[in-house]
Write a structure and sequence with these properties.
2 strands, single chain, about 110 residues, alpha+beta, about 50% helix, two-stranded antiparallel sheet, 2 domains
């Protein structure tokens, strides 16, 4: 092979290798990070931190309950185009709450 041809072929492979590396690198990085999580989830979650919360502190808060009428006003502001069909009093995690049942938009 002539030296000029060999230099052109080497240049082509260097440029191709560089561009392919830039295109493939993000995928290799994503596969590596997800594999690290799958094999060492406790380690990765230790770096991220805990997403749990302690509900016991809610009991220490001053009473800020809404009446059923006030809760209905909030629900109607959230679902302005969907009428509320019924309201039921309920307990949620040990606290008084209201359950609003409505007809989803687009259904009859």
């Amino acid at each position: 092979m002539k030296p000029a041809t060999k230099a052109k072929v080497l240049k082509f492979f260097r440029v191709s290798h560089g561009w392919l590396g830039l295109i493939v690198f993000p995928w290799i990085l994503i596969i590596g990070l997800t594999g690290l999580y799958l094999n060492h989830s406790k380690l990765v979650l230790g770096w991220i931190g805990s997403s749990s919360y302690d509900e016991s502190q809610f009991a220490e808060w001053p009473e800020q309950g809404l009446s059923q009428a006030d809760a209905l006003i909030v629900a109607q502001s959230v679902w302005a185009s969907e009428p509320v069909n019924s309201i039921e009093a309920d307990r949620y995690h040990g606290f008084d709450s209201f359950v609003f049942k409505k007809t989803p938009a687009g259904s009859s």
